[in-house]
Structures are given as C-alpha cells and as structure tokens.
Amino acid sequence: MKRIVLLGATGSIGRQTLDVLSKHPDEFSLVGICAGHNAKELKEIAEAFPSVEVIGLSENKEDITFLCDHVFYGEDNMVQCLQHCDYDLLVNAVVGFRGLKPTLESLRQGKDVALANKESLVAGGVLVKKMLEKTNTKLYPIDSEHSAIFQCLQAGKKEEVRRLIITASGGSFRDRTREQLQDVSVEQALSHPNWNMGKRITIDSATMVNKGFEVIEAHYLFDLPYEKIDTVLHAQSLIHSMVEYNDNAIMAQLGSADMRLPIQYALMYPNRPYLKEEHPLDMTKTLTLDFKEMDYERYPMLKLAYQVGKREGNLGACFNGADEKAVELFLDKKISFLQIEESIEKAVEAATFVADPTLEDLERTDQEAREFVVRYWGLENQ
Ligand code: NDP
Ligand code: MG
Fold first, then answer.
1. Looking at this predicted complex, what is its ipTM?
2. What does DSSP say about strands 28-35 and 54-57: parallel, antiparallel, or unpaired?
3. Who surrounds ion ligand 2 at CB < 5 A?
4. Which residue, by CA, sits nearest to atom 36 of ligand 1?
5. DSSP per residue over 101-170, as a string?
6. Which residue of 99, 319, 347, 365 is 20 to 30 Å from 49, comparing CA positions?
7. pLDDT class of 145 with cuts at 50, 70, 90
8. Which residues contribute to the annotated binding site for NADPH?
C-alpha cells in the first residue's frame, strides 16, 4: 500500500488524482490533503477517503479540525502536513511558487514526488536538483508533455538522445496574429481548444509562458542541456511529446486529452493498469497530425524562457513570480492580455541576478517580481 499526500486536492489535477486513487483502493491510501480556499470540498474528500490523517488549508480559517487528527492552517500548512504524517509519495498539484517548499521538504525527507507543480522547477530547479542528488530521490512527471517524454525515454539510453521535442497546441489564440491580440478578453483567453485546466495554466498556454515553463521543466527533469530541447507546434495535442535518438528514430506518445493517464503513470510507474476513459483515442476517426515550426516572434515568452533557463540562478523565480502576478491582474481585468508579456519582460530586465541562490533568495526574488509588476502598472493603491 502506497501512502499518498496530495497538495492542491481541490484543483483540476487534484480531482483527477483522486479519481485515479479511487480506482486502485488496494494500491493506495490517501493520508494527507491540502488546498487553498475550498474547505467544503476538503470535507467531502475527507469523508470519501476515511484514511486521511492530516489536512492543510492556506487561505481559509474555517474550523475543520473535527475531520481528522491534524489540521494545519496558514502559509506553512503544506510543509507541516508533510512533517506530521507517515507517507511514501507526495503528489504536488498545488498551483504556483508556493509548491516549491513542500517539494523540497518531501525530497529532504527522502520521499519521491509526483510533480504537477512545474513552478517548483521553473523557480527552484537549481535547489530541487541539488536536493535530488543529496537524498537520492526521484521526481515522476505529471505534466503531459513530460510524462510523454518519460515514457519515450524508456525506449533508449539517455546518452543516445539527440533531442526532446515538446509539442505545443498554441493555446486559445493560436490562429491570431500579434496585432489581433490587442483587445482579447479574459473569457476568450480562458477557453483552451484541447484541455480543460485551472485558470492560471490556461492563460499561460495562451501566452506560451506555459511552453516556456515546460522547456525549463524538461531541462531539470531529464538533465539535458537546452540545446537538446526543442518545441514544435502541433494543433491537435494528440502527440504529447517526442524523443529523437541518434539513429534518427523518433519515439512519440499519443493519447486523448485526459490527464488521468499521466497521473496514473506517475503514481504507478512502470505499471500500466486499465484506465477507464470516456474518450479513448480512435486512430481511424481522429488521427490527423499537423506540425509547424515554432514561431518565436509570435511567441516571445518562449524565447525568453530559453534565455532565462540558460542563465539560471534566480531568474526563473522572477519569470514565474512576474507571470503569477500579471495573470492575476489580467484575470481581475486590471491589465490587458499583451501586458502580461510586457510585465514579465520588464521584471526580468529589472531583476538583480543571483547566481547561486538559496531558498530565501528565491522567495525574495518572487516577492520583488510581484511588487515590480504592481508598481510598473501603477496599481499600488488598488
Ligand atoms: P487549479 O487552479 O485547478 O487548482 C489549484 C490548486 O491549488 C487548488 O487545489 C487550490 O485550492 C490550490 N491552491 C490555490 N491557492 C492556494 C494557496 N494559497 N495555498 C494552497 N493551495 C492553494 O490548478 P491546476 O490543477 O490546473 O494546476 C495545478 C498545477 O498543475 C499547476 O502547477 C499547473 O501548472 C500544473 N499542471 C496542470 C495541468 C492541468 O491539466 N490542469 C497540466 C499540467 C500541469 P483551492 O481551490 O481550494 O483554493
Ligand atoms: Mg503540459
């Protein structure tokens, strides 16, 4: 029985993780759950999974202490949960920079992490890498592109990989030119053509910040230089990503847009038990595969991500922090869609570079990037 702690239990990935866990009651025991605001849903989960021993709630003080032995509130609740229960695997599906600390804590304790929280690697890849080496622990990717690459890597040797090819759908606005992005609305940006996800990652897909994050994520997950990480536009999202080997063979992983597949693979690797899908991929009906070369002028955030990733240090934390704040302001209708990109570019330009950052340096960089974006748009008093 694998004992699981799930962060971000009430979110898009969190709920799909619960679905996977409920299909394998003899393999998994859910012992911990955390969320931001949604106490009601945490209660429902605790009732559905009586094995829960610890609960964490960040942004809501509602009394749910009657639900289990330990309930933690406030900023450090996720780390406290990890310190007060006996678990085997952390599933980190919280959104944002706040996911970095619990990732580090779990690895520090010698426990592997199934990782959806890509911010852990974008902002803190340097520290996560050191901790993985020190404690001999592992990360199992949940992000669909990285799960695909992880699966394709089973076919060959790492030394014989020529390049990783990450596919990009192009997000909600892929058929628009940059000029046509001037006045797009929040509602338009939130309707992703292929995937149903949380708000932040849906906006990040439209700006291609998400693909930039995924390039950095791939660099740390698979320990390959940026020169060996490519992206390609692939509108259908049927191929989730590919690995090209030195003998010219390209391995691709295909599937329908259902995150339960990568979640289950991360939790049960290397096993592939039956996974009920409402829409399994029917090759005879759905298989049209289009590819286009990536357009870095159309998607400047992807280009910036490569630069930020290569320089390393604290710049990933700045890139992520500025994006988190800018997306929040866009969703609140305080800035426009294109101003998300401008926020990030200016914040990265203004950042004080720290080559070998500590966690405290990254926390400071994250905070400064957010404050920079608010100041840049003159929104201090709102
Ligand atoms: P959602 O917005 O759907 O869920 C976010 C989760 O984080 C919720 O459980 C939310 O709790 C919790 N949360 C929000 N604020 C806080 C806080 N202050 N403290 C603690 N918890 C908080 O996001 P997704 O599920 O879409 O994404 C989660 C992560 O997975 C992200 O890093 C994303 O990039 C990554 N990912 C997501 C994919 C997807 O298909 N959705 C695909 C690949 C990666 P509450 O609702 O109670 O506030
Ligand atoms: Mg992805």
1. 0.99
2. parallel
3. 143-145
4. 116
5. HHHHHHHHTT-EEEE--THHHHHHHHHHHHHHHHHT--EEE-SHHHHHHHHHGGGS-GGGEEEEEEEE--
6. 99
7. very high
8. 10-13, 36, 38, 117, 119, 198
Indicate the top mutation candidate among 95, 113, 118, 204 to test ligand 1's pocket, ranked by most ligand atoms within 8 A of CB.
95
Instruction: Assess whether pLDDT exceeds 80 at residue 139.
Output: yes
- CATH of the structural domain 313-382, one choice from 1.10.1740.10, 2.40.400.10, 3.20.20.300, 3.90.1030.10: 1.10.1740.10
pLDDT band for position 278 (50/70/90)?
low
Contact predicate 169/234, CB 8 Å: yes
Mean pLDDT of all residues belonging to the chain:
96
* Atom of ligand 1 minimally distant from the CA of 59: 18
pLDDT of residue 69: 87
pLDDT at 279: 66
Asked if pLDDT for residue 297 goes beyond 80, the answer is: yes
d(CA 260, CA 15): 10
Nearest Cα residue to atom 5 of ligand 1: 11
Ligand 2 centre distance from Cα of residue 234 (Å): 13
Residue of 42, 201, 215, 331 to mutate, ligand 1, most atoms within 8 A of C-beta:
201
pLDDT above 90 for 284: no
Residue 308 Cα, ligand 2 centroid: separation in angstroms?
19
The tens digit of pLDDT for each residue in 169-191 reads 988 899 999 999 999 999 999 98
Cα–Cα distance measured from residue 85 to residue 76, given in angstroms and rounded to the nearest whole number:
15
DSSP code of residue 67: G
Q: What is the residue extent of each domain of the chain?
A: 2-141, 159-256+288-312, 313-382
Q: What is the mean pLDDT of residues 205-209?
A: 96
Q: DSSP 3-state assignment of 229? A: strand
3-state secondary structure at position 374: helix
- CATH number for the region 2-141 comes to 3.40.50.720
Residues within a 6 A CB radius of ligand 1: 8-14, 35-38, 58-59, 93-95, 98, 116-119, 143, 195, 197-199, 201, 259
Question: What are the tens digits of pLDDT across the range 39-83?
Answer: 999 999 999 999 999 999 999 999 999 999 899 999 999 999 999
